Every structure is written in C-alpha cells, then in structure tokens.
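Task: encode each sequence below as structure tokens.

Item 1
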Amino acid sequence: MTRSTSLALPPGLSLLWESADEHAALRDRFGFADVGEATDWLVAALHEHWGLTVRSCGRLTISDHNAIAWVSTDRAELVVKWSRAFVAKLVGSHCAGQHAPPALTE
C-alpha cells in the first residue's frame, strides 16, 4: 500500500481539522509556550511514568482538546495521545497559562 504524501501530516506542530493558529492553540488549550516546552513535558512524562527515553518527537498535532505526538523512544516508535483534561489534572493551574509546567511527580 502506498501512502499519499499530500495527505500526510507535516513535521512539527500542526492542527488536525482546524485552520486556526497552531501555536495559539498549543498555548491556549494546553498552556505550553511553544513546541519545545510541550516536548519537554512529554519527555518527562514518558520517562517518569513508563521508563521510556525519548530520542525524538517529530510531529505534534492538536485535535480539539487532544494532542497527538509521534515519538521515537529507546524501545519503539510510538504515537502518544493525551487530552487537555489529563494535562490539567497533572499540572493544576498550568492550563490556565499561569506558569510553566513543572516536572511530573507522583
């Protein structure tokens, strides 16, 4: 089966179904200032909770109040999905944009 490149999602940050500004969506929906901050949070979460070491995150896509990341780890290539509600639960007022996301702790 051949995948059409015209339908593939671009690398980096994008929106799945919307034509809004992806950087504003990342900030307003998840509270991350930029892709680097979101990636740092994801790297920490995967390491702390699942013992995975992320080698790279080539794509981050936002769909409504969900984020989907394509990551390469020390164990496998993964597609990771999380919701705004999950981030809010873990980092409290972070989703209101009041402060940078802290390192995850139990």
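Item 2
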Amino acid sequence: MAQEALVIGASGMLTEVSRWLARQGYQVTVLGRDPIKLSRIRDGSIHQESIHLLSQDYQQTDSLRQSMTLQTTEKQIIVGQVEPREKRPAYSSI
C-alpha cells in the first residue's frame, strides 16, 4: 500500500515538495485554490499518476471540511503553506 501525503497551498513554494514526494513513491493530494496552477504541478512531474488535484478555497472552512471527508485514507505526511486571513506587515511603523 502506497504512503499518502497532503500538500496544502501546493501551487506556490511547495510545488517541488509535491513533486519530490511523488518521486519518493507517495500518492500526493495537492490542495490549492487555482485549478490551472494545480494542473501545472502534475503536468511538470515525471510521476503524474501519483499527484491528485483538489481545487478548494481553504478559507471556506465548511466546504473544505466536506472535500476532505471525501479523502477516505489517512495521510502520513501533511505539509502546509497557508496565508493568514489578515495580512499584516512584518514590521511596525514609528
């Protein structure tokens, strides 16, 4: 049985992590808001059959929860890159 991973926000900085996990033999579910960007993750992988796309706005908690219940298997690895709801500067003004 293949190991499984979930990568949240995969279409940005975590694209190569998703592809690396697929090369390591994982079945990788990538979660992101933009279906076109998600397709690029799979299309750029040499293991396209190991990357599964889940287009979902993860700020919409209820619909995210519903989508995730459709994922019936337990994930061994979960990687996430989620932006905070409120973007605040990393510095303070004087």
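Check on item 2: The CA atoms of residues 68 and 85 lie 20 Å apart. Helices lie at 15-23, 35-43, 61-69.
End of task.
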